[in-house]
């Protein structure tokens, strides 16, 4: 990676930002009902930025998977090669950061969020690196390697969202990373069969060996009990990350903390429901009901209230931690200088 510095364009005018935020909100409503429910709790300006960043993440996901809003996979013959799609994402992302306005609205939304909140561009690159792992069909031998992938595709998004909400300092951002990792572990547990059908196996090889499975066995209904065992193990493995992430709520404004606590509960519920269904969930996409989402809105408020009560400092468990770097908040990425790929 080479380093160059140059002026960064200013954030968007209010009207342009409002238009992009409205498009992003529509994207969220169609592509992620769980995030859409939690996002309603953010303060208006934080909500706009969170939705606009999500729109870029959703676009990245769709481009790599050849989908639209997570659905409707296009025939392989109609799509560019995976590496070509990834290169397109990287180029368009950098063009947006350079001030090019003739791009998909999701790129323009992302660029505005970067400028407005001084997001380090290395976080965007780390997220794109997660997609490179998908495109390169990376195989994961150990759970630590799976966690490295989880950080890039989800933990780093948690870090960016936390910065948007005003969090600074390694302690708060580590907890945001933990929550993203927990979300991704839940995703992997839920989608083991669907991912395996696409040739993607995120369960570490050492876990497969311990379960007496080969990657090809994940799509065999006759092995549903063993596959369910792997899903349950992933759900259990995510629990310390969900627990650790709650420590970070105290670093956020109350409304943002409420939204995060709600998302925490809604997504964790997916894992709990997956465990409850066991082998019966094989090949199904488990989701949280509307009633459960509403229940977690109330529970989220209680979680936030608990973090506002002065208590002795809690020590987080020793978990996989995000790559070290300069403390975010000291790093300048908006205004007059930025780091480029």
TrEMBL record:
Give the species this sequence originates from.
Jiella pelagia
Q: Which UniProt keywords apply?
A: Transferase
Transferase: is it a keyword of this entry?
Answer: yes
Name-wise, this protein is Phytoene/squalene synthase family protein
Region (Disordered) residue spans: 320-341
Q: Which domain of life is it from?
A: Bacteria
A Pfam family this chain is assigned to: SQS_PSY
Is Lipid biosynthesis tagged as a keyword?
no
